[in-house]
Amino acid sequence: MCSSATNVRRSMRLKNTPGLESPGSALRHRLKKKLHESASLSPLPSPKRPRSMVPNTNPPVTVPSPVYDEDMTTRGLLRGIIQMETEASLLMSGQPALQASEPNPAEASVSSAGERTEGLSGVELSDLTLNTEPLTHVVRGLSRRRPQRAFSASAFEKQLDQLPEDVSHVSHKGDISEEKADASQDLDWSSGSKSGLNLTLKTPFVEKRIERVGLQRKVSNRRLPSVDAFDEAVQRCLEQGPNQDHSLFQDGKTLEDSSWQKFTLCLNDVTELYVQPKKDDTAGPSAEMERDAEYEREYELERASEIPDSVPLIQEGKDHELESQDDDEEDVVPSSQENMFLSPEDDIVLAPTQAMTESLPESRDVELQDREFVEEVEIGNVVEIEDQKVVEIEDDSIEDENVVEDEVEEVQDENVEEIEDEEVVEAEHRTENPDTSQYLERITRRAHRSEGGGSVLGIPAATRVTKSFGAGLNPREKDLLDFIDGNRDLQDFSDEEREPPGSPEFPQLHPAAELSTPEQRSQQHEASLAEEDVPEFEEDDDAPEELNQSEEEEELMDSGSASQSPELAQEEEEEEDDDDDALSAELSVKTPAFVRQKRVFTSSIEQAMPTALKEVNAGPAPQVAKRAPRQKRQTGVDVLPKSYVMSMFKHFAKTRVASDIYPAINEILKKYFERLADDLEAYSTHAKRKTIEVEDFELLMRRQGFVTDSTPVNILIEKYLPLEYRKLLIPVATSGNKVIPKQRR
Amino acid sequence: MSKKAPRAALKLHMKKNTNIRIGKNADLMAQLNLLVVLHRLAEESRVKAFEEKSATIKVHHVRAVAKKMLKSTRG
């Protein structure tokens, strides 16, 4: 029997408590005491009385004092509660009393407490009713709490798990108190205590649980957003799934991959993005898929400034879906990357667009439609949101440039100008929603950029845009088509490898495109003076390469512009085919330009990519800001490169630094530099010198208080400057009686 | 944190308004100065951010200390 165990323990305690002859008698004594105590004393002290009784040489007289002392502690409180329970039950035989008495309050040792509890539990379980059991457990928990702190978490969890199982609160309580005493917990649970004390015990348990729960909640809360986002992504994925034709596995793969990746903005893919993914035109069947893939690819391509790759794709795409598809296939891989990149954006955009795309499968018979669809898909969402923009397209052709420029600023400045314009046009029209629009814009921009021929893009973009609207397809579709086409064009152009399809239109269009492009661009530029023209021009100026390329493109475009301009005028309602033709022409025209611009784009795009990526990730808000009219690129705006400044600041700050601090620091530094220059100048003039020398700086630092008699300048030099610079500033003596740097004596 | 400091940009700043010339390694000193100033700015703003019990340095922290800094590093 447990009693034997308890007896053993009791014997141990008995040693401490003289007077206990035998367990049975001790039990009896305790019972009596308990009754007395319960009758006389308050419930709280009662539980401790038994304990006190025991150490007090088992005098029947209850010794509340020790009990009270114990009550102060949590353990004591719990014990008190248990005591109450025991008293209430009145079933508590001497066992609880014994148990209580066993533990010597004086000892108050954990081990002893553990023993006591065990003893109690042992005794209680066997002899006492369920009520007693929980008490014992509780007591056990109390006693063991400290040592078993470490287990509390696991134990508590166990308790939690078992809580639902265990109806009795007491058991729970026991769990709580016993966080560490798993064994005791089990006993409690098994006992299924139903003591009326459940309520009383519940309180502490609740408290404890709250602690844990709170901790747990925090974690769960944190996960929520991710989960939701994930769910959204999942939904999108699902949406895309049915839409995508299984025939186009390649595309599907890309899309699927992208969809997978959509969940997480795969910034890792950024590097991939830089790699020029060749857009593989997927088979026409899954227009949607293709579009999405292409869209993504285009997007990615744009970013990666893989214009040459895209160019052939675009061209091909225009002429032949299959061809385009082939290219797309090639690009699928890279586009997958893009998709991944775009996916997050696309998901948002594509989610609704997918629905649209699905609806549009019919209209997408056109070869180029694949791309267009992609565009439309993305655009569609936007368009839906903003039909008005469609109207704007005509007028916004120029505005688009502006918009594009705005967006471009972030992504890319130079080469992409024109391209951006196109994108902007499309983006603007399509996206009233900042979110979607931004995405589209970005995509368009990228597409433009990837195309490399800003001028060229402008034309196709315009055409595309109009086409999208003009076509009977949903405006979104149109936009998407245009977008896609534009993107494709851009991409195709950039793709050196791809040769423009032999469509006769192409050569014709190319020259026309060339002609038109410059015209369009000029027109666009002029029109967008308010917003983008200035920046565009500036960008062009900034990028002489671009100009050269643009010139070439212009030539090409001019030829095509003539054809395109009228198209543009009517485009809005032109069919996709026309657009395709124009695009194809543009594609062929742009190829050379793209080739050249490839380099520029890659560099610029790469630079822009990080910002673009940030933009993408940032979400609608930053996009909206970008949409503001692009401003002329300012050379002196940034006092110093942001990366450098921020890295230095972060290093010095040692704590986290908000990223939007840079502009403020910039301002400060600007003012500081101005003052600095004035001071230095004054110093030099005072020294009757015409150049600012190192000593001027030394004087400055001394006056600033950075350098004192105790901190020579050289110290600072060593502290802050990199080695290369240090060598230059500090003469270093080397062997051979040489001093570096060379000192002129 | 030894990064390549943009010597050209620094030089540009120093020569902005005047035609005065910059010595050979003076721009290195300029960079040094910049680093020192930036360091102090970061320290001060970090302290300020800490006052507000925020682990990250926010813009208003920096702005608050900027004026004082500009004044102190007048020379």
TrEMBL record, chain A:
GO terms for biological process: chromosome segregation; kinetochore assembly; mitotic cell cycle. CDD domains: HFD_CENP-T. It comes from Sinocyclocheilus grahami (Dianchi golden-line fish). It comes from the Eukaryota. It is found in: Chromosome; Nucleus. Belongs to the CENP-T/CNN1 family. The lineage of its organism: Eukaryota, Metazoa, Chordata, Craniata, Vertebrata. One of its GO terms (molecular function) is protein heterodimerization activity. The gene is LOC107584584. One of its GO terms (cellular component) is kinetochore. Residues 166-183, 277-306, 475-491 have a biased composition (Basic and acidic residues). Residues 636-732 form the CENP-T/Histone H4 histone fold domain. This is Centromere protein T-like. Residues 529-557, 569-583 have a biased composition (Acidic residues).
TrEMBL record, chain B:
Coiled coil: none annotated. GO terms for biological process: chromosome segregation; kinetochore assembly; mitotic cell cycle. Keywords: Centromere, Chromosome, Kinetochore, Nucleus. It comes from Sinocyclocheilus grahami. Pfam families: CENP-W. It comes from the Eukaryota. It is found in: Chromosome, Centromere, Kinetochore; Nucleus. The keyword Lyase does not apply. Belongs to the CENP-W/WIP1 family. SUPFAM superfamilies: Histone-fold. InterPro entries: CENP-W, CENP-W/WIP1, Histone-fold. GO terms for cellular component: kinetochore; nucleoplasm. Its main location: nucleus. The keyword Nucleus applies. This is Centromere protein W-like. One of its GO terms (molecular function) is DNA binding.
